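Aim 2 progress update. The chain analyzed this quarter is reproduced below.
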Amino acid sequence: MFTIEQCVMCGLTDVLNQTLSIPVNINGIVSVNVLGAKCANPNCGEEYYNSEDTEVIRQFEEIIKRQALLSRIKPMYLQSKEYQISSAKAARDDDE
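Predicted structure tokens:
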């Protein structure tokens, strides 16, 4: 855990360590809880996160998006015969 001495937004020295919720909104996952700090000033409320935590969440979001995209691609044997023929022809044309 880290300690924030002073809020960079309002200057208050009362920045408390706590569990914070980061919104994700992907694939039914609404948010992810992480350890961080939050300014106690009700007019500020600035939140501080560990950059490693936010990087892991970003990578997680990318993996979920990639899996969703891949799940929409049909295997060749489930595609129409016309599409199979045109794909094979395009692949042969690329080799030339």
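Strands lie at 15-26, 29-39, 47-49. The chain has one domain: 15-91. These observations will guide the mutagenesis experiments scheduled for the next reporting period.
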